[in-house]
Amino acid sequence: MTKILLKGATLVNEGREFIGDVLIDGKRISKIAPSISVDGSVKEINCEGLHLLPGCIDDQVHFREPGLTHKANIQSESRAAVAGGITSFMEMPNTVPNTLTQELLEAKYLRAAEVSPANYSFFMGASNDNYDEVMKTNIQDVCGVKIFMGSSTGNMLVDNTNTLEHLFANVPMLIATHCEDETTIRKNLEEYKEKYGEAIPMSAHPLIRSAEACYLSSSKAVELAKKNNTRLHILHISTGIETELFRNDIPLEQKRITAEACIHHLWFSDADYESKGTWIKWNPAVKTAADRDQIWKALLDNRIDVIATDHAPHTIEEKQQPYLQAPSGGPLVQHALLAMLDASANGKIPLVRVVEKMAHAVAVCFQVKDRGFLREGYFADLVLVDLNKKSTVTKDSLLYQCGWSPFEGTTFSSSVEKTFVNGVLVYENGKLTGEKGGERMLFNR
After folding, report:
1. Residues 6+ apart with CB under 8 A from 210
2. How far apart are CA 188 and CA 176, in angstroms?
3. Which CATH architecture has domain 56-366?
4. What does the pLDDT read at residue 211?
5. What is the pLDDT of residue 153?
6. What would the mean pLDDT of 209-216 be, rounded to a whole number?
């Protein structure tokens, strides 16, 4: 296998930026040094003027396969992910059928092995009545167990108190939760139906799926986790008040309770509903600019540990429906890193912290084996970005099967130039190479 030598890039890794060379030998990084010379067969790539980052790890995506492939599939969305510098993803279980058995879970892995250019892992789903199946989950080759404590489809809402207690007390691996209190949401929705009938405005979304609903559920999850010493990870924090639930006085490696912020809650606010409408309808809802500011503060002071996308595509026709019918969710994996690089260029977050929150911390949080860092011996999951080359989001440039993006028309200050997955060049100069580098992620547990 030909070695690849990346020459003269600015490496961004573990709190440092420095110019150096990286030698890829097969699937792994074999050497990192200020200057590397190689005897024999080597493909040399001049990276001067480019920044080399560890590939991003997205701990929350919905790729819609099986059962919802009119919206998206593992192949289409993983291709969009690598085009955006995301080299590894963790996918959620609310597909059709719901991923509630080990057989259905393994079928997803088999499919990804066939088609995914990105590395992959899939959450095992919990319900009110599949405890025995959940407990069969292999802690070394599955990223975690997902519990919907609100806002789910099919049979995945876990609202039985005894079941929650049992899961939090006994699951031996990371539990990831969606936290919104359904009772509060249903009450709010009925009030808005009485006021507006079927014509509820989009601006009501963050009031129906309110900060109170989020906090009630998140605080309950934290309480259960503290009681049972559960390894809890709360997804997509959307309110300022929730950030008060988390701590930053110990290293991430020692935390038993961690939290995630998503791109849309860092980028948009309720002021954007007027122009974006259902394009930015997510659960939990995008809330106020004050909430957004508090999420940013918690991200920067390490109460919030990682950045993800909650990539959840729907068709244009589905999203164009009125508020009550339009589903929540949107596509983000192709532009998440670019959005954060923009935030860095605008002084919102240092570049090294972008890498920390989108790669290093995710690897630490989930105990990912040999990924998430530029280190000798680690897998060569790498992304080369040009911080001085603008890129505009056009419909023609989208790789999402759904064919739309809430970022359409946005010009980002940076561009993704090349993406490597396990040493395989899967994306370069605006095009997929057609190579499939993705592998099943493993975990040091």
Report:
1. 184, 185, 188
2. 26
3. Alpha-Beta Barrel (3.20)
4. 98
5. 67
6. 98
Q: Residue 134: what residue type?
A: V
Q: For residue 414, give every residue at least 6 positions away whose Cβ sits within 8 Å of its Cβ, in sequence order, or none.
A: 338, 341, 342, 345, 385, 386, 387, 388, 389, 390, 391
Type and span of the H or E element at 400? none
Paired tokens of 167: 């899961």
Residues 6+ apart with CB under 8 A from 133: 100, 101, 102, 124
Q: What pLDDT score does 373 carry?
A: 98
* Range list of H helices, 29-128: 74-83, 102-115
Domain boundary assignment for the chain: 3-53+373-389+411-432, 56-366
Return the bridge partners of 379, or none.
28
The per-residue pLDDT for 159 is 87
pLDDT at 283: 97
Q: Tokens in use for 221? A: 């999850």
User: C-alpha distances in angstroms, 135 versus 102, 132, 311?
Assistant: 10, 5, 27
The distance of Cα 347 from the centroid of its chain, to the nearest Å, equals: 23
β-bridge mates for residue 12, sequence order: 17
Instruction: With CA atoms as reference, report the closest residue to 307 among 250, 355, 240.
Output: 355
pLDDT higher than threshold 70 for residue 219? yes
- 177/125 Cα distance (integer angstroms): 10
- Is residue 174 pLDDT above 90, yes or no? yes
Query: In the block, which residue shows the tokens 């319900």?
Result: 127
Encode pLDDT of 237-270 as tens digits.
999 999 999 999 999 999 999 999 999 999 999 9
| CA 91/CA 312 separation, integer angstroms | 10
Residue 120, Cβ neighbours under 10 Å: how many?
26
Measure the CA dihedral 353/356/358/361, to 10°.
-140
Of the candidates 352, 334, 315, which has an alpha carbon nearest to the alpha carbon of residue 408? 334
CA Rg value for the chain: 21
Q: Answer left, alpha or beta for residue 377, where phi above 0 means left and psi between -120 and 50 means alpha.
A: left
Query: What is the largest distance, in Å, between two alpha-carbon atoms of the chain?
Result: 76
Task: Read off the pLDDT of residues 325-375 as tens digits, 9 standing for 90 and up.
Answer: 999 999 999 999 999 999 999 999 999 999 999 999 999 999 999 999 999
Q: How far apart are CA 77 and CA 309, in angstroms?
A: 12
C-alpha 79/C-alpha 74 separation (Å) is 8
**Which CATH code is given to the segment(s) 3-53+373-389+411-432?**
2.30.40.10
